[in-house]
Amino acid sequence: MFGGPFGSAGLGALGLLYGIITADTKIEEENAQAQAAYQKLTEEGRLRYGKELDKDQQLEAAIEQELARQRELENQVTGTAGTAPVQTPMRASNAPQQRTVSGNPPAANSAPQNVQVAALIKSLPPQPFKNVEMRDVNGDGVPDLWIYYDPQKPGEVMRQEEASKGDGRVDTWSYFKDGQLIRRDVDSKGRGRPDTVFSYDKDQIVREERDEDGQGRMTYRASFQNGRLAKVEKDTTGSGRADLWIYYDSSRDGEVVIKEERDLNGDGAADLWSYFENGRLVRRDVSAIGLEILSKQEQLPAPTAGLKPLSTPGS
């Protein structure tokens, strides 16, 4: 029935229709695959972008943290306005003090910079705060004197720090009240902490204390009257309390010994007394306990009349 030219034409039309349907299906599958691949690439791109954004944010946070740390270090070095920390001699750290002087704060897009004091050559950095002044006393280009002024009383000195050896390391701390020197701490042995403390009243020395063995306690104490040496107390055994007392004639110029007392058994009380006239030994007294101790020795201990203060620095 379908023979002839019309039959062949019908079969050809059916074949063409099938081919069109098959091609459309294949195109839809390819479009779906392409869309899936695009979505996958998009998700990977978003993840990658998110990770890069997180890295940028972390880097910015690290930079801000470093800048804050640098500003804190600068404040610790130069002292912030309105503050002047009081340093007690025996609470000082064992670590040597390293002073860092910073100039103008770095720009936000530049790395923080520290300038070591010892590296400064023939120039002083700008003064960081109006109540702190740095000076180069010996003219070698390295700051060696820092003066802290009372922000409530312009021009009145509260504290001074000095690097007396010219190495940029502070070894002398001076404290003032109402413009007058009241205490001076000195690191005489270069341990990075004070070992000698001078106390003053109206700029006149009244007491000197020393840590002679570096154990963190004072083993020597000298008392003054009217600026003249009057008494020396010394711990010669390292027991933590005095066992030797030397008295001076504070009414005369010069350091003239008039009496010496010595604790022989470490109970804190004198057992041996030595008396002097014009600096010469004239008499020695001993207690019963002291006599028992001395009887076991071949000779009496020699007087220690040569103990003198380290120095009596002024303002």
Keywords:
2 helices; alpha+beta; disordered C terminus
Explained architecture:
With 315 residues, the chain is of the alpha+beta class. Residues 1-7, 79-124 and 309-315 have low confidence and may be disordered. It has a 13-stranded antiparallel beta sheet with strand order 1-2-3-4-5-6-7-8-9-10-11-12-13. It has helices at residues 4-78, 288-295, and strands spanning 132-135, 145-149, 157-162, 172-177, 180-186, 196-201, 204-210, 220-225, 228-234, 244-248, 257-262, 272-277, 280-286. It has two helices and 13 strands, in the order αβββββββββββββα. The longest helix is centred in the first third of the chain and has 75 residues, at 4-78.
Short description:
This protein has 315 residues and is an alpha+beta fold.
Explain the layout of strands and helices.
Elements: H1 4-78, E1 132-135, E2 145-149, E3 157-162, E4 172-177, E5 180-186, E6 196-201, E7 204-210, E8 220-225, E9 228-234, E10 244-248, E11 257-262, E12 272-277, E13 280-286, H2 288-295
Antiparallel strand pairs: 1-2, 2-3, 3-4, 4-5, 5-6, 6-7, 7-8, 8-9, 9-10, 10-11, 11-12, 12-13
- Tell me the distance between the termini: 135 Å
Given helix and strand content, the structural type is alpha+beta
Count of helical stretches: 2
Largest sheet, described in full? 13 strands, antiparallel
- Into which percentage range does the β-strand content fall? 15-25%
